């Protein structure tokens, strides 16, 4: 009942041709087991609308290989953050993971995925840039950088909100140019920090 309430479209899916194969893939191929697969779908029912070959499997591979999580780590990550399946690989997951590997190479896979839940262009990139610009690179742990509200970040770094907003606007513009949104639809949703931001 909870699943139907959250995602009523599930009533229109074929159990044999849609729901069951996805449950089987998550349970057996990803290694979640039946209970884990049900948990993931209950928390992120949109997974049932995704194609295994075109959407789910590539994201599993991205987590395992590009985040360096491996099979077991990927299983744990998916159980903890099933909403990752809603993210676009090209506009959200891959750019964020590449940025974190480049800028924060000591961050392990689990922490990297946790950071990937935050807005890349609207939070992570401008904050890392501003810290570097003001000679404070490496001053804060990545998780602390991400968790601060914009006001807290500005106070700690010693900058104005105007400077912060200008850097965010520049990063968002650059990201949009480099990773344009698809013409229709798209599942690139992220959690912003302190200001309700969403997107890449």
Give the key terms.
elongated; 63% helix; 11 helices; single chain; 200 residues; disordered C terminus; mainly alpha; 2 domains
The averaged pLDDT comes out at: 82
Main sheet makeup: none
Helix content: 55-70%
Helix-and-strand structural type: mainly alpha
Strand portion? under 5%
Radius of gyration: 18 Å
Which sequence of SSEs, written as H and E, runs from N to C? HHHHHHHHHHH
Count the helices. How many? 11
> What's the total count of β strands?
0
How many domains, in number, for the residues? 2
Shape: elongated
The termini sit apart by 32 Å
List unreliable stretches of 5+ residues: 184-200
Describe, in plain words, how this protein is organized in 3D:
It is a single chain. This protein has 200 residues and is an all-alpha fold. Helices cover 63% and strands 0% of the residues. It is built from 11 helices and no strands. The chain is elongated. The protein starts with a helix and ends in a 22-residue tail after the last helix. Mean pLDDT is 82; it is low at 184-200.
Tell me the layout of helices and strands.
Layout: H1 2-6, H2 15-29, H3 33-43, H4 52-66, H5 70-80, H6 89-103, H7 109-116, H8 120-133, H9 142-147, H10 150-157, H11 161-178
